[in-house]
Amino acid sequence: MQEIKQRRFLRKTRKVGNSCGVLLPKYLLGADVRVFVATLPLAPKKDVMKILAPILEEILGVYFIKMQGKKAEILAVSTKVEEKIEKGRYKIDVVPLAEVKKKREIIDKLKKAKVIINKKLLGELRKGI
Could you say which DSSP state residue 100 is in? Predict the structure, then answer.
């Protein structure tokens, strides 16, 4: 019987047909392997909705600004609420619409933003309303 040597690999999953898989060296063909998920992929829409649930009635739009290291920077435009939330892999700035219209640096951030909620508002903010 062959001695089992434990080897560790850190790999990203890849698309394989209709699912995903992990590619390993060919010499492991036929070996029993154990897969451990180190981090789940970002699901911004789902995750941000859970985080913003207590103030969701006040939210007008939510936008993905950028990845900063391992944290996703999110901007949420609200009616009156102003707050900064850091939870898990998300850094969320909740800013009132009136303040967004006044601050040029926020509008500049929104020019490269991706929509999570309310595409129409993002278009209006990019035009400068």
Answer: H
